[in-house]
Sequence to fold (319 residues):
Amino acid sequence: MKMIVYLFVTLIGFINYAAAKSCDPEAILRSDVAQYYTHDVVFLSDIQSRSFSKEQENDASIGIAYKNIPMSARDARSMSEYISEHSDFRLTGEQTTSVIKATLSDASMRAYITCLQATKGVFVVVPPSALDEEQFPFKVVWRPANLSEASPISLSVTNGELIGASAELSEPMKANEERLFTIKRDLGKTLFISAKVNGEVDTISLPRKPTFRVSIGELYYPPIGEKESQIIRGYGTNTTDLISRDLCVSSAEGGLFSSAGAAKIVAEVVDGQRRAKIEMDDANNNSRRVCGRISASSGASGIMVGIRARLHVFRAIIQ
Fold:
């Protein structure tokens, strides 16, 4: 099985995607999505359907994480694109929205429906288990803005089968009613569920369950165990001299990603009293290379300065 290495680097961060004070369906839609970032399909759906500000591009404190590792917008988008390019898994716009809807809590879903109720009356509501399980329950919610009488309901399913739904479909739906159904799907195909009530239609499109697997590991340079190569030593002639070294991780086969400011160098001065300075090569780090520089001022003439340093990054392997 071909293994492709993907590297990204991180800083810890957090943001709250709670609904805005005014009724913003997009904000409500993403209220709970961060709780499901460990799920590849949810992560891909969220990143592929979002836009980011310039300030978020290199900020790893914006609340995005993959496998619990915080990422900047640039890291997240690169990760999403990498998975799409190196697997046979693709998502449509309808699928990304449907997947994110599946992450909404009951309270968030009620807020979402209320927000859209003025322009939309019928909603298909699926649980998070719909992304992975062959059989799961789902609801059809009917919230007409200006209608009190009962309305006929019909369901259309592709790549799935309703279980025991004849009674539920034979009775018209009352205004503000929620009706429960059970479905069994083919996890190897895209599932479509369409509900029609009083002429209004809502459709959920859930992608097939992906076959790829992503595991997370770590990379170090110098590698663990290479003690001598970790130490940089030198003499200076005055206090402005710098003792420095570049530390890099690269991949000839590509698939490496980084984000400005997100790499991590662990360093300590082992000789001398100077403080080590750490700089990442933010302008040039790319999908094949992540580099940073460690340095310290030499101090007075003839004073030995030694720095022990290691570049630490995370990597993902697609199998």
Remarks:
- The domain at 116-209 is CATH 2.60.40.10 (Immunoglobulin-like).
